[in-house]
């Protein structure tokens, strides 16, 4: 069985990664969503195991020590990480998995999975980014300022990604991401078909 695609969706806080992923989920695509672990406190309405696995710092450090995370990063005072086992199992069973993670973590994933598909979600402008993160109403103004400064640093790392998608309008951003995934599947299938054809001729010879 062919391994599934690993899709990494990054971009600054408030750009709309979660909204885009929720929309893709509603469209009932075959994508599997990886649920991250974090030491951040749950926001109102967030559910354990659906939005995050909420951990104490000690529990998170234990996951690091057990090598239970595919990647992790410290972001604006909290740890965030991707549980390794689930992602590996899903990929091995041929399923496509999407990670919604910040940039430091994405670059670590790229070292381990250079064949992954790395998509950077951009806001239409920095002003709109600030409006979105403020409008969400989940962070205080200090945290918003910190996240905005990190956002500028993160955008400087866009060159390490395979695709940039502007989240101007949710439907079109989702459509572009779905097209990228379809194109990556075609590319992988063409590569494997070419390789199989080559193997068949060399076996005959
Ligand atoms: N295309 C869009 N147009 C207008 N508003 C949007 C759009 N995409 C997302 N938003 C709004 O922007 C806010 C931030 O979105 P969201 O929480 O999905 O961002 P995020 O990138 O997942 O943030 P974080 O990284 O902090 O989790 C939300 O209030 C959401 O409704
Ligand atoms: N490196 C990782 N980053 C992650 C992971 N899960 C989420 N995130 C990113 O953290 C920030 C902040 O998230 P928030 O929910 O507190 O707003 C955001 O950019 C997320 O994408 C992860 O497993 N690893």
UniProtKB/TrEMBL annotation:
InterPro entries: GK/Ca_channel_bsu, Guanylate_kin-like_dom, Guanylate_kinase, Guanylate_kinase_CS, P-loop_NTPase
Limits of the Guanylate kinase-like domain: 4-182
SMART domains: GuKc
Keyword terms: ATP-binding, Cytoplasm, Kinase, Nucleotide-binding, Transferase
Catalytic activity line of the entry: GMP + ATP = GDP + ADP
EC number: 2.7.4.8
Signal sequence residues: none
Subcellular location: Cytoplasm
Keyword Hydrolase on entry: no
Enzyme class: transferase
Pfam families hit by this protein: Guanylate_kin
Chief localisation class: cytoplasm
GO molecular function: GMP kinase activity
PANTHER family to which the protein is assigned, alphabetical: GUANYLATE KINASE, GUANYLATE KINASE-RELATED
Family named by the database record: Belongs to the guanylate kinase family.
Described purpose of this protein according to its UniProt entry: Essential for recycling GMP and indirectly, cGMP.
Name recorded for this polypeptide: Guanylate kinase
Species annotation: Paenibacillus spongiae
Taxonomic placement: Bacteria, Bacillati, Bacillota, Bacilli, Bacillales
